[in-house]
């Protein structure tokens, strides 16, 4: 028997990294997955590898290997109609929607005044507006499906303490806290809980394969201490442990859950 037997989870950004691992871990606990990923270049300024359609297919294989059912599609969180159609089709297939994990996100580096207009607006569009579209696409169906459930929004340590060289990213991840707090208050009476998770340095392509990450500090080494953490890196399972906990934590809403090796405290 699994912790989420018979339940359905909608997850964005499932082709790889944290999103893939959340999908596999929920499936191993008995859940069915409705998942999506752009599986292509998100923005021209992206300086870490792009997720591919093969990555998305591999997630489907891994979820099925874990014993789960999955409806997975290639698409963009910035496309509200796409997300609404996927949720509708997933609901028709599985008959319910219990949990949402708004995980898709992008990162770009550069001093505030040196970032291009695209570096600023693309990150806000994906991380903030795309996440709001995920909520808009899913909440009406969650409410129709049953009374209760959870929404977990993946913010960042950069949403708890501002990071140098990450102005657009920090702004987007701080904003997600405001979004989550509003929705937590709105949905509390309907027993739908809303929480944010704040990772730091996770072992994913975004976390460890970004060629521009340390270049940003070459001219301004004074900025580097802001990036210190207590241990080198978190695993995707460390993050899935938190996400699955929050999905099952009946007394937890409006929480900001730092999985950051203490980095938000230094
Ligand atoms: N890796 C880290 O160190 C770290 C630290 C703090 C927060 N985070 C956050 O964790 C979340 C997951 O990141 P990750 O580490 O797994 O990164 P990742 O880049 O490995 O995976 C992100 C996935 O999201 C997808 N995606 C991005 N934009 C999308 C869009 N507009 N529509 C659909 N799919 C899209 C990508 O294709 C990719 O498969 C993100 O929100 C990220 O900001 C990551």
What does this structure look like?
This protein is an alpha/beta fold. It has one domain: Rossmann fold (3-Layer(aba) Sandwich). 40% of the residues lie in helices and 14% in strands. The protein has a 7-stranded parallel β-sheet with strand order 3-2-1-4-5-6-7, sandwiched between helices. Strand 5, helix 5 and strand 6 form a beta-alpha-beta unit. The mean pLDDT is 94. It binds nicotinamide-adenine-dinucleotide (NAD).
Report how far the terminal alpha carbons are from each other. Answer: 41 Å
What is the tally of beta strands? 7
Task: Tell the overall outline.
Answer: globular
C-alpha-based Rg, rounded: 17 Å
Specify the CATH class: Alpha Beta
The CATH topology name reads: Rossmann fold
β-strand amount: 5-15%
- How many domain units? 1
Determine the structural class based on helices, strands and strand pairing.
alpha/beta
Number of helices: 7
Q: Helicity range of the residues?
A: 40-55%
Bound molecules: nicotinamide-adenine-dinucleotide
Physical arrangement of strands within the biggest beta sheet: 3-2-1-4-5-6-7
CATH architecture group name: 3-Layer(aba) Sandwich
Mean pLDDT: 94
CATH H level, superfamily name: NAD(P)-binding Rossmann-like Domain
